[in-house]
Write the structure tokens for this entry.
Amino acid sequence: MNTINKTNFNFPGQKSVYKGKVREVYNINDNVLVMIASDRLSAFDVIMPRQIPFKGQILNQIATKMMNDTSDIVPNWLVANPDENVAIGHLCEPFKVEMVIRGYLSGHAAREYKAGKRMLCGVGMVEGMKENDKFPEPIITPSTKADNGEHDEDISRQEILAKGIVSEEDYLVLEDYTRKLFARGTEIAAKRGLILVDTKYEFGKTKDGKIVLIDEIHTPDSSRYFYADGYTERQEKGEKQKQLSKEFVRQWLIENGFQGKEGQQIPEMSDEKILEISNRYIELYEQITGEQFVKADTDNILDRIEQNVISFLNV
């Protein structure tokens, strides 16, 4: 199956292009951004050597649906989706922090807790918690927005303000929007029989100074979900939670000796493993959205994207 590893488009009015870990963003006339979701797979801030069929389409379509489902409470950058792998939105200046919010002691937070830490990004975590227990209240644990090839790093609200990364006035808006989005995401997940465990949001400021949600939202790459059915019983028995997220990829990498640390070698992914991951992403899509996934035509995937974007820009 054809996949998108990298793109090299030259759209009408193109000013520049930014290539992130998974997405490639084209600036058109300093007016709109064309964001293309590739099929690259990133884990522990490292891009894996092989791509995952339909992953970009899945992430783009989940993010689009979730932006539409939250636009009444938080404004977002989205203008159009001319292609299954493409989102076009308003030009924004991104804030250099990711707003991570956690409802449960899982993932990175659980690893830090297990190491004996009780403070994460300046926020206290109560004693006596087990992995995957629910926090008394969701906690916001921001991270720096890393440049390409670097690791995101935990940072506290106090450090963000002290370093002038975000003004206090803007940061209060980011916090408010983060909590509102997480509450809505929790409601949406509950209707699908899921628990939204933790997630991250990214925000930007438009040319007229409006703060808006950008990038992805509530996707399996940016979020962790548990199945609600049986959650309590599994916690009581000390069993692992059944979850929907990219964590299954991280766990496989950890089991094969890779956590993104210096000197570690990325384990080889067989064709069977690639197909398994692709099928898991499709499962994630259908469970999160409640809709059947329809595979886009990938015969000439780059030509398809180019034609669809140019047709939109020329309207």
Observations:
- The longest strand covers residues 194-206.
- The chain is about 30% helix and 25% strand.
